[in-house]
Amino acid sequence: MFDIIDVFTREIVGHHEGLKRLTKEALKALDEAAKNRNTDDLILRTDNGVQFRSREFQTRIRELDIAHENGKYTRKKRSYRGLSRHIKKR
What we know:
The structure is a single chain. The chain has 90 residues and is of the alpha+beta class. It is 44% helix and 19% strand. The strands form two sheets. A two-stranded antiparallel sheet has the order 1-2. Strands 3-4 form a two-stranded parallel sheet. The radius of gyration is 17 Å and the shape is globular.
């Protein structure tokens, strides 16, 4: 499932449900959102999913003149060490 939410109004402006999380499904939600909203000065924020980094998705947001920000996911080394100690104890 892909939802595109207007963070100002908290409305869902684009939505697509599918069995898989494929680029073409993300594009369907993006296209629906583009039909429902003016895309001038729009910033699309996504996670680092492969759908959003795909060449096809990047091409489409350039065609729509949409700025794209993707989340920066960082892992803390301490949490992994703590997790591995927890696993070893069991």
